[in-house]
Amino acid sequence: MSWGADTTGLRGGWERTGEQEHSEAIFPTSSFSFASAAEAAARFSGDEPGNIYSRFTNPTVRAFENRLAAMEGGERAIGMASGMAAILATCLSLLRMGDHVICSLGVFGTTASLFANQLSRFGITTDFVSPTDPAAWAAAVRPETRMLFLETPSNPLTEVADIQALADLAHENDAWLVVDNCFCTPALQRPLDFGADLVTHSATKYLDGQGRCVGGAVVGDAKTLDEQIFPFLRTAGPSMSPFNAWVFLKGLETLGVRMRAHSEQAQALAHWLVDHPQVERVFYTGLPDHPQRDLAARQQKAFGGVVSFEVAGGREAAWRVVDATQMLSITANLGDVRTTITHPASTTHGRVPAEQRLAMGIHEGLVRISVGLEDLEDIQADLDRGLSGSA
């Protein structure tokens, strides 16, 4: 049965149990029992399908995986304990000592630290390049390059990479293209449709949508996930809990309508910020002067819910804006129905060396807003307290 995106988010990926429940059941169990020793042996060997142990088989987690895969246009998804666990599992499953990665400069600070500081300990090297310069990606390719990794739009400057062009480059060089789809989600963008091999998610963000749980996922073709990434999950255990999977299932039900609303709110806030006399620069893909606006319009159904802006006066001025808010949540999380505000240089990218932060374009006067679903006038009034010095 072929369904639209919103219907898939509401009804895809699960089957009712014998109890005929209307909403998905939670299976909060550590293990599953078997009818016989022979059945147990067959399950453990893989000769017979079925549940074994919730580290790697659980019906609630599987329902989340199936639904997310359907929404992303993938054959298979694997739920993980966090978004970073999903990226780590993907890298350690597909890369080995001596391999080389090309990573976008415009990634979440912890992602940059993972490639620069952790994977390097295992002999995996990484070069960071501009997400918007295909020539720089091509120039960085080596014989040992095995992965291209990016976020698009980027965190926090909303730079947009050409997924199809980078997919072509990766495949010409026998490498994987992995795209973090956190900012858009499958409601707005499906990287697999543009040639990406794998998609990663921090389900903590928009997939949940209400800041309740931490989780992650990787989506792609069944062969890669079953033969290369699932064995890592089964052995290493960066598993998603059944309760969190159930929460994420509830989040996926409203993902489409939320992402459209977030985008509409962010578009309006971005234009308001452009006109504010205390704001020096606004970063949002939906603005007419955004350098990749046309590319974003081709790859995305809408422009997303994250807006960043710069104020004069560096960290002191940016912190003053943040501290003056009375309604907005001062937190580094994003993708919440409640608007959140943070200072990237000292939070999300605080562990990135200052020189690399500057290369990323993350200056001390930068503030990031994840635009929620409150009344727009209330969001604007709260920001104006710090911007206009009326706190």
UniProtKB/TrEMBL annotation:
GO terms for cellular component: cytoplasm. InterPro entries: Cys/Met-Metab_PyrdxlP-dep_enz, Cys_met_metab_PP, O-succ-hSer_sulfhydrylase, PyrdxlP-dep_Trfase, PyrdxlP-dep_Trfase_major, PyrdxlP-dep_Trfase_small. The modification N6-(pyridoxal phosphate)lysine is found at residue 205. Keywords: Amino-acid biosynthesis, Methionine biosynthesis, Pyridoxal phosphate, Transferase. GO terms for molecular function: carbon-sulfur lyase activity; pyridoxal phosphate binding; transferase activity, transferring alkyl or aryl (other than methyl) groups. Pathway: Amino-acid biosynthesis; L-methionine biosynthesis via de novo pathway; L-homocysteine from O-succinyl-L-homoserine: step 1/1. Residues 13-22 have a biased composition (Basic and acidic residues). One of its GO terms (biological process) is transsulfuration. Residues 1-22 are annotated as: Disordered. Its cofactor is pyridoxal 5'-phosphate. It catalyses: O-succinyl-L-homoserine + hydrogen sulfide = L-homocysteine + succinate. Its EC number is 2.5.1.-. It comes from the Bacteria. CDD domains: CGS_like (cd00614). Belongs to the trans-sulfuration enzymes family. MetZ subfamily. Catalyzes the formation of L-homocysteine from O-succinyl-L-homoserine (OSHS) and hydrogen sulfide. Homotetramer. NCBIfam families: O_suc_HS_sulf, PRK08133.1. This is O-succinylhomoserine sulfhydrylase. The gene is metZ.
